[in-house]
Specification:
Elements (H helix, E strand, L loop, with lengths): L1 E6 L2 H10 L1 E8 L2 E8 L2 E7 L4 H15 L3 E10 L9 E9 L23 E2 L2 H14 L6 E8 L7 H11 L3 E3 L2 H10 L4 E9 L5 H30 L1
Parallel strand pairs: 1-4, 1-5, 5-10, 6-8, 8-9
Antiparallel strand pairs: 2-3, 3-4, 5-9, 6-7, 6-10
Length: about 240
């Protein structure tokens, strides 16, 4: 078994690089993969870059090169559910693109045209439970853990009106720029996945300021949760 761990930004994978042992650095054009052991478990770690295209091509390359059997996408997100606070954690139940729009052709916004399946891709139930219990055991500063829906688009959302639309239209709990692409590629390859997002901002008019302040702490929180997950996964073998 090989676990693939992906983050969009350097800050979101830095913790993993420090925790790995016996790892090899493999550069494949624009990507650098870190392949090695973490708690005696085979893992591959990579930064995908920001946006859905970067995420999709990185996941597929990881699958093709390393034959990963589970995928965990980790990092930060903006809250769209008003009950969420900075520092809270969302474990994805599903993920959908919020910015795909073929409504002029009669498709509901968020629907992938000419695709017969569901455009809202469900995470693996077992990984959801492992991520949820791991997060519960890690957080100890008053943060909350929720299972919820992640929506993704090639936009940094900082408008309260847009936030409300995402929450109302998609029942979205948080918004970011990569997760739905990871979910779609994993689904097409029949590989179990889950997305873990720490809330770094409220995706409102103050998003740009709070993002910079809280991003590193939120990314570290997500990383520690994943570390706990790997321990739990290993114990089941």
């Amino acid at each position: 078994m090989t676990i693939g761990i992906i983050g969009a930004m350097e800050e979101e994978i830095a913790y993993f690089q420090r925790a790995m042992t016996d790892f090899k650095e493999e550069k494949r054009k624009f990507h650098t993969f870190y392949h090695g052991k973490w708690d005696h478990e085979e893992v591959v770690i990579v930064k995908c870059g920001i946006g859905k295209v970067n995420a999709a091509m990185t996941v597929q390359k990881m699958i093709d090169l390393f034959q990963v059997t589970k995928i965990i996408f980790t990092g930060v997100a903006g809250a769209t559910n008003p009950m969420l606070e900075i520092g809270d954690v969302i474990v994805s139940t599903s993920s959908q693109q919020h910015d795909i729009d073929a409504s002029a052709l009669g498709f509901k916004k968020g629907t992938i045209p000419m695709y017969e399946g569901n455009s809202d891709f469900s995470a693996d139930h077992h990984l959801i439970e492992i991520a949820y219990t791991s997060a519960k055991s890690v957080l100890n500063k008053g943060e909350e853990v929720y299972k919820g829906k992640v929506v993704s688009g090639d936009q940094f959302i900082a408008d309260p009106k847009h936030v409300k639309i995402l929450h109302d239209s998609f029942d979205a709990d948080c918004v970011e720029m990569e997760g739905a692409a990871v979910a779609q590629v994993a689904h097409f390859n029949e590989i179990p996945f889950v997305i873990i997002r720490s809330i770094s901002d409220k995706a409102n008019g103050e998003a740009s300021q709070s993002f910079d302040i809280f991003m590193k702490d939120a990314a570290k929180t997500s990383s520690i949760i994943v570390e706990n997950m790997i321990t739990k996964i290993k114990s089941e073998e």
